[in-house]
Amino acid sequence: MDMNDKNFLAGQVMMVGFTGVDEISEDFISFIEEYKVGNVILFSENIYSKEQLKRLCGKIQEVVKKATGYPALISIDQEGGMVSRLSPDLPSAPGAMAIGRTGEPHYAYEAGLITAKELRMCGVNFDLAPSCDINNNKLNPVIGVRSYGDDAATVYAFAKKMASGLKDGGVIPCIKHFPGHGDTDSDSHLILPSISKSLEELEREEILPFARMIEDGIDCVMTSHIIFKALDKDYPCTMSKAVLTGLLREKLGFRGIIATDCLEMGAIKENYGSVEGGLKTLMAGADLLTVSHDYTVARDILDAVIENVDVDRLKASAKKIICLKEKYGIGSEADIEEEEISRFRTVFNELRFKCIDVRNKAEGKSLTVNDETIILGCPSYRVTLVSGKPLELDFAEYLGKKLNLPFIKVPLEPTKEECEEILSKLDKYLDVIMGSYNAHLFAAQADFVKALEEKVCGRNGVLTLAALRNPYDLELVSDRSNKVALYEYSVDMFDALASFLKGGENE
């Protein structure tokens, strides 16, 4: 390809998502061919089995190679835990906070290596993970269990190992969300967050894991759509030259690929427009612009880029992206036997059991189940795209049937009448297991949990509160109750909890 062809160069700096599973629409193929788009991003909506994913990635490579002469970066958000895009026939690693609580970073390496082998087998070569965000705000609605912990040292130690595992498995890791999304109480998928910390505070906390990963030679960093007032009062990091060029390139010395978070997200789209955001971020120093779902938005951005950005600027980023593809041998796949997939599942199941976090075991009150036990639990919810498909899974029903026990479903935000009705049905049960879902963010659910403890413990029963996502729910009950953090609303973690409850020991 002609390295002075603006269409080709612009296409290399775009990463675009689409709707489809078994087939790629003719419209999307025509878009790739016309604009020479070099990179694609996949979500769970594009995936239903490992064989289907492998076929889809093969087709993507065929179309992109024909259009551009180079293989495609095919990316995915496979963090593990609550942010898992893969289909059920491919085992998914536990999430970051669950692994972080083990205190053993080698588990993060193992999770990264197995994840990379699975991805590369299916043709995915670029993982938008791990998160280097420090979860230092309990009210954060979007990071939470996606972070390895609430301090810079822990986050760096585990993220480094996860990235090394991915790299050793042949997949490009991309750390995110620079310079840190942990200390927000709002979600950039929906609105534009801002952080008022001083530069000194940022350097001691948020920036530190990223700086150390850059020193270690990480190849790719993803930006955050957040205004850090100490860095740039006017623009979010994704669009800020002060952040991308001044801080990331010049001060921290990063020479790799700067990828953006999705330009369709509310923080950019609703405040600047995706097209203006795309232009601004490219001129600020980014290399790879992401449009996750609507390729017509990517087309509009590409039209603006081709018209307004000069060849030399595009060439600088396109060359880096092509070099990255060559470095990782992008375009090839790895063969893995079915027995290996089974082994991966066993490893992850064993790790999930280790990740069950018993915060306290109320004196004389067992964590096992009996004939006088009932299961209560909330559903999960999908606020943003980071949660993937809405889950049909229900904790109370699943665990109740798994353990052959009665169960009651509790709404995420139960009304006063619903609370009273549920509590009135518990009189004949001595032991209650309640699965909460971010109750610390839902006042009505938090009130129900507190009322539940008063009812159960008030008659000398046993309440076990299982936090099914963020562990901060456990602060809602006293030491009269058992407290267990699961970090993840999934069949795999529910199975691990069932095994734990049957044995009563965290082996």
From TrEMBL:
<dbReference type="Pfam" id="PF00933">
    <property type="entry name" value="Glyco_hydro_3"/>
</dbReference>
<dbReference type="InterPro" id="IPR001764">
    <property type="entry name" value="Glyco_hydro_3_N"/>
</dbReference>
<keyword id="KW-0326">Glycosidase</keyword>
<protein>
    <submittedName>
        <fullName>Glycoside hydrolase family 3 protein</fullName>
    </submittedName>
</protein>
<dbReference type="InterPro" id="IPR036962">
    <property type="entry name" value="Glyco_hydro_3_N_sf"/>
</dbReference>
<dbReference type="InterPro" id="IPR050226">
    <property type="entry name" value="NagZ_Beta-hexosaminidase"/>
</dbReference>
<comment type="similarity">
    <text>Belongs to the glycosyl hydrolase 3 family.</text>
</comment>
<keyword id="KW-0378">Hydrolase</keyword>
<feature type="domain" description="Glycoside hydrolase family 3 N-terminal">
    <location>
        <begin position="11"/>
        <end position="322"/>
    </location>
</feature>
<dbReference type="InterPro" id="IPR017853">
    <property type="entry name" value="GH"/>
</dbReference>
<dbReference type="GO" id="GO:0016787">
    <property type="term" value="F:hydrolase activity"/>
</dbReference>
